[in-house]
Amino acid sequence: MPKVVYPYTQLSAASSDNNSGCILNNGVYIQKHPIISGLPHNANGKCLGLNPPPPPPLPPPQKPASYPFNNASEFELGDFLFKQAQMSGGDITKLMDHWCSYNANWFSHNTSPFKNADHLHGLIDTIPHGDIPWQGATVSYSGPQPANPAPWMEKTYEIWYCDPLAVLEAQIANPAFANHINWSPKCVCDARGIQQFKDLMSGQWAWEQADKLAKSPMNHGTTFAPIVLSSNKTTVSVATGQNNFYPVYASLGNISNEMQCAHEDGMTLIAFLAIPKTNKTHEQVLMSSDDMLFHDSLSVILCSLKPFMETPKLTPCGHGYYHRILYGIGPYIADYPEQCLLTGVTNGWCTAETQGSQQWP
User: Fold this and answer.
1) Best-predicted range by mean pLDDT among 108-117, 188-197, 258-267, 339-348?
2) What is the pLDDT of residues 260-294, one digit of tens each?
3) Interatomic CA distance for residues 75 and 334, integer angstroms
4) Mean pLDDT for all residues in the chain
5) Is residue 196 a contact partner of residue 187, using CB atoms and an 8 Å limit?
């Protein structure tokens, strides 16, 4: 077997001298990170090693599949009224009243499947399955203000988002991803020893992040999980006040490239960011301060991940085991206007130029 060359660090190069942990798979050699190795654990946090026993079977459901409805017929009726017919609340209540009257006349019991529209809507809201709920927050400009501030400087802006921690945990626990998640950074080489880059976790950045995390003994055996963000300044109008928003998406960077390309819920909408409005007089000031609102909004949205960027979180996974997850902010996919917002670079300048001395030609 040819020697696998690791260009990243002395640590990884030393581990390749004896091909420690090197796996031959479909004609390529895969070396996983020797310390941030993504080892499986049980529900109590005990490490199960490189060859874990089969995971325990899933416990039987404690509640019927139709919960919180009494039976499948009630669920199907609620689905018809709310989703298919999209019946108004008043009509649902009127229908239930007629239902009660009919049963009272013919079957001597004054009952209906639902008491009224509020009862049905309450049952729907308590369904334990479904999308992660949305929540709102407000941000405002906190920079210096002139004597005659622009209206947007004194305005509070709404942002709407899903908890990114819950989104990533749902992706990690998705059985469809169980065999398509890279639990540790890896170096991939072909039979000639030439390195191949297949996805995010096979790149140099992921390996270098793992080297930094490996300095703490508490992190040994953990899984590094970078969040990949993306945004597009597409205007979305809503009914209340005609506020303008644009979407932000998130994905777990550990998901393989093949599964990402299959669009199996690997990229999830997590937020709508506000777009400040102004007039021509204050437009230049707005452009120079828009990045403050952008970064403040992202700070609010991503705050749930922060505690687990240094302290691993024991997380159930789709293959039946648990992993100690360390989250991190990964690449941000954006076009040039969003790149300027992210880096604080003036429009027309190169966002990759750290010295800020070159303009785009």
Assistant:
1) 108-117
2) 776 667 889 999 988 766 554 444 444 455 677 88
3) 42
4) 81
5) no
Q: Of 192 and 33, which is predicted with more confidence?
A: 33
pLDDT digits (tens, 9 = 90+) for 335-359: 887 787 788 777 777 766 644 444 3
What's the 3-state SS for the chain? CCCCCCCCCHHHHHHCCCCCCEEEECCEEEEECCCCCCCCECCCCCECCCCCCCCCCCCCCCCCCCCCCCCHHHHHHHHHHHHHCCCCHHHHHHHHHHHHHHHHHHCCCCCCCCCCHHHHHHHHHCCCCCCCCEEEEEEECCCCCCCCCCHHHHCEEEEEEECHHHHHHHHHHCHHHCCCECCCCEEEEECCCCEECCCHHHCHHHHHHHHHHCCCHHHCCCEEEEEEEEECCCCEECCCCCCEEEEEEEEECCECHHHHHCCCCCEEEEEEEECCCCCHHHHHHHHHHHHHHHHHHHHHHCHHHHHHHCCCEEEECCCCCEEEEEEEEEEEECCHHHHHHHHCCCCCECCCCCCCCCECC
The C-alpha angle with vertex 70 and arms to 65 and 74, in degrees rounded to 5, equals 90
